[in-house]
Structure to design on (374 residues):
């Protein structure tokens, strides 16, 4: 890419090596840059409450990350702004996460954050400071396809770092104003480039945890958050039942389970048992064998079509049902009321309500939606 006169780009700086490398790369290429960091969650807010960890260092979107992002901006000599988006983050990400878990589904807060908050807020702020585009450290690619008359979102060169699963909700407007400079790069090369630019965080580890759930305990977070809000964890206790309906035991609440879960069932069995389904209405948690976890179909709603317009007839795609899932061939067909059904060529393990189903045609993201049932 070549710099254009009076072309200001706002770089989304998370404090990690990827976004920092993007800032260094674009700065070296002569662009006028402004660094932006979204402050999403007070990492000390629930510390120590209801058993939550006291220490929250080294986490995604932490104070440490803000410090690292500011330091990189200072090193590059570019303006830097910290944007407070905590209220919106709680409203659009944290509360839906809590509500989904209490309803027996397994949400993906990172997808909600990217699709409904980060890109929207970053582009709004970018306009306010006179930038026409944003650049991020996501591993993805985008381009305008004249034949389709649409912006196309595609998987990156480094498939092991592919983040398109979390980006299926981006609009054509958002894609048209976003740069993904790392889309053609491999992660080791990104770290090398960061080191070549003298960035001290070149070897900083990638964050693996959800930013507002230290320790990865969802049920612990639910208790702490509800306690802070003056709410009690609702009683959703019920029965553990077999696939044939036989009562095998009792459980303390559907919020403690997710499809595919094996540990923590409190059952003894000659063969391993897994959560097959969660039924919020009856509060029953159905368990069964690993073989029973496999299904050929899913239904999804809240669809967003990205690289193709909404199809009017069944289409062939490959579908990811979780971030680390290899896309699997399937046929999509509309079933009314803004929903689609996917019929897989081969059975898929642990299709989970609340997760995303992202549809690919080759490397292009055709679209995606939220799984309601399998």
């Amino acid at each position: 890419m070549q710099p254009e006169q009076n072309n200001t780009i706002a770089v989304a700086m998370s404090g990690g090596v990827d976004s920092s490398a993007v800032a260094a790369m674009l700065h070296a290429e002569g662009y006028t840059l402004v660094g932006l960091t979204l402050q999403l969650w007070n990492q000390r807010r629930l510390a120590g409450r209801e058993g939550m960890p006291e220490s929250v260092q080294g986490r995604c979107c932490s104070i440490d990350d803000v410090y690292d992002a500011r330091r990189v901006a200072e090193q590059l000599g570019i303006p830097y702004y910290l944007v407070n988006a905590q209220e919106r983050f709680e409203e659009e990400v944290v509360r839906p996460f809590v509500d989904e878990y209490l309803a027996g589904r397994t949400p993906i807060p990172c997808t909600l954050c990217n699709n409904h908050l980060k890109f929207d807020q970053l582009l709004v702020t970018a306009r306010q400071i006179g930038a026409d585009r944003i650049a991020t450290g996501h591993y993805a690619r985008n381009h305008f396809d004249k034949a389709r008359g649409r912006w196309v979102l595609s998987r990156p060169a480094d498939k092991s770092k592919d983040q398109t699963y979390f980006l299926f909700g981006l609009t054509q407007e958002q894609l048209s104003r976003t740069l993904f400079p790392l889309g053609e790069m491999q992660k080791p090369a990104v770290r090398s480039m960061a080191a070549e630019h003298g960035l001290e965080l070149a070897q900083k580890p990638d964050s693996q945890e959800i930013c507002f759930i230290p320790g990865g305990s969802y049920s612990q977070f639910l208790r702490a958050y509800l306690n802070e809000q003056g709410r009690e964890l609702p009683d959703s206790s019920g029965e553990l039942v077999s696939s044939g309906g036989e009562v095998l035991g009792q459980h303390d609440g559907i919020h403690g389970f997710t499809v595919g879960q094996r540990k923590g069932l409190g059952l003894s069995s000659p063969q391993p048992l897994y959560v097959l389904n969660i039924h919020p209405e009856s509060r029953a948690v159905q368990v069964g064998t690993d073989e029973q976890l496999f299904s050929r179909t899913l239904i999804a709603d809240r669809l967003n079509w990205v690289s193709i317009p909404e199809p009017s007839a069944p289409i062939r795609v490959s579908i990811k049902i979780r971030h680390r899932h290899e896309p699997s061939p399937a046929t999509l067909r509309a079933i009314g009321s803004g929903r689609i059904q996917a019929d897989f060529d081969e059975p898929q393990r642990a299709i989970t309500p609340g997760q995303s189903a992202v549809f690919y045609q080759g490397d292009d993201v055709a679209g995606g939606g939220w799984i309601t049932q399998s």
Notes: The first helix runs from residue 17 to 28. Confidence is low (pLDDT under 50) at residues 1-6. The CA atoms of residues 309 and 366 lie 8 Å apart. The chain has three domains: 8-137+181-216, 236-288, 294-373.
